[in-house]
Amino acid sequence: MLILLFLILTASIYWGAKWWYTKKKKVYFSPLLLAPILIIFVLALFHISYDSYNSGAKWLTKLLQPATVALAIPLYRYYPILKKYLREILFSVLLGCMMSILASFSISWLVQLNKTLVTSIIPYSITTPIAMGVSSKIGGVPTITAVFVIMTGIIGMILGPWIIRIFGFKSEIARGVLLGTSSHGAGTSKALELSSATGAVSSVCMVLAAITSFCISPWIYMHILH
């Protein structure tokens, strides 16, 4: 009974936060930010342990794995865009992924984080299902990775449009690459608010960034962290 209760609680809070965000359109009402805060508040208010809560909520986490298959849909749907700007998109995504991984490693090394935290942070700019898989594969802690992925998405939603305005990005391709590569699903949702074309490119870049990072993260782990 408790398992079903916590599952319903999590889903209800998320959909409530999402509905509120569609009404207000303020980044601090994003379900990525608001839902975790509300869940923590409920757990603290009723003195519910995380283990008890996770007995139900963990099934939503498990659904992330089959949900990864759905990432193939943007690649198929927006194949004409990918084909037309293939070289530009691939180069930008590859460069962005390399910079992201190396930056996370460098910062972690500078502040002298332990190896487990470093490997947990490396996939922070990949969409959650794949990020957790990469983290597990290279010796990280998937739950820690998920936290950094969410933080990255929220920061990308906030800073992405601001960077676009500051640097005067007019191209929808450039906007989509920026948001999709750096802040995955959260960035893509913001890209869709800018225009459908920007959202399409962002969707493609999000998938390509996930695939690219999945391939190069273990290599960087083997050659730099070992």
UniProtKB/TrEMBL annotation:
Subcellular location: Membrane
Key words of the record: Membrane, Transmembrane, Transmembrane helix
Keyword Transmembrane: yes
GO annotation, cellular component aspect: membrane
Coiled-coil regions listed in the entry: none
Bilayer topology annotation: Multi-pass membrane protein
UniProt xrefs under InterPro entries: CidB/LrgB (IPR007300)
Residue stretches spanning the membrane: 28-48, 89-111, 146-164, 200-221
Main location: membrane
Keyword RNA-binding: no
Name the record gives this protein: CidB/LrgB family autolysis modulator
Originating organism: Heyndrickxia oleronia
Lineage of origin: Bacteria, Bacillati, Bacillota, Bacilli, Bacillales
